[in-house]
Every structure is written in structure tokens, then in C-alpha cells.
Amino acid sequence: AETRAAVEASGAQIVTVAIRRTNIGQNPDEPSLLDVLPPSQYTLLPNTAGCYSADDAVRTLRLARELLDGHDLVKLEVLGDPHTLYPNVVETLAAAKTLVNDGFKVM
């Protein structure tokens, strides 16, 4: 309820969703963010926060696309260092190439 109220108060139309940290249906025993912020009312922007390899990022976004009925606009980030959260550029580029070839629109 707090999330919904905050998004409504902000006037946001796009909500970034950390797929590895937020349930959008992959955990059926937990409440889903999709019940609070339905894709019919908001554009959800899945991102790969918490991914440390291209393989993890690609797998995460493929799962998101499946759970979000084909949604293809995504935010890609592949981390290289857990302390500074600096990106791993090589892994990010590898993931981007795979995702673009799979029809994703990568940010």
C-alpha cells in the first residue's frame, strides 16, 4: 500500500523494478508487485540490479519478459564490484549484445 501511494503521489508513469529483489510472480507464495502496480496502469522497467555476470543479467531479463507478457524495454546493469557498485563493462556489453539479438530494447 505504501509503494502504491508513493508512486501515485509522485505522478510516475514508469517504475523501475529490480527483478532479483522484487516479486513479480516468480515467487507464487509471496505478494506480487504486479498486484500493487499493475502493468495496465504503469510501465514497469525491469532492471538487473544485483547481477554480476552477463549470464545472470540475461536470465533475469528473460524471466522478466516472460512474467510481464513480452515486455521488452529493460534497464541493464552488470556489477563488477560489490563495494563500489562499479559496472563490469565487458559483461554489460556481452549481455547487451545477447539481449538486443533476443529483441530487447536495452537501456
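Next protein, fold it too.
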Amino acid sequence: MNLGQFWGGEWQSQWIVDIPQNLMTGSIKVNNHYFEFGNMAFNLVKKFDPVTLSASDGQTIVAKINEIETKY
């Protein structure tokens, strides 16, 4: 939120990890609202193809999510 600059928004992620298979699937939802000279909304839903993980430990999972979301 930055109401002084006339915008607000949210980024929601959901990731599912198949530990025995070392696979991860996920999606993000981005919602933005700009209202300086009227109202304009931006809504995005992005689903990612399955991603193979090198391991299913927490550090590897978090690093892969960070990599994918930062790149996107």
C-alpha cells in the first residue's frame, strides 16, 4: 500500500510440493489498484508448470520459489 502515491495491491502465492517426486507446482495472483485520476485495476493469475527440485528440503524450496517469483 502506498495511499500517498494513489495505489495499493497484493501478491498472493500458492505452492504445492510433492516431496517424494521432488516436484513443485504453483500459482500467483497479483491485484493492483490505481486511483489518482480515476480507478484502474489490474488483476493477474499466473499458473506455473511443474518444476523439478534438486532436493525437497525447506531451503531448496524457498530458494526455488524466490527464483521463480523474482524472475516473473
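About the second fold: Helices lie at 58-71.
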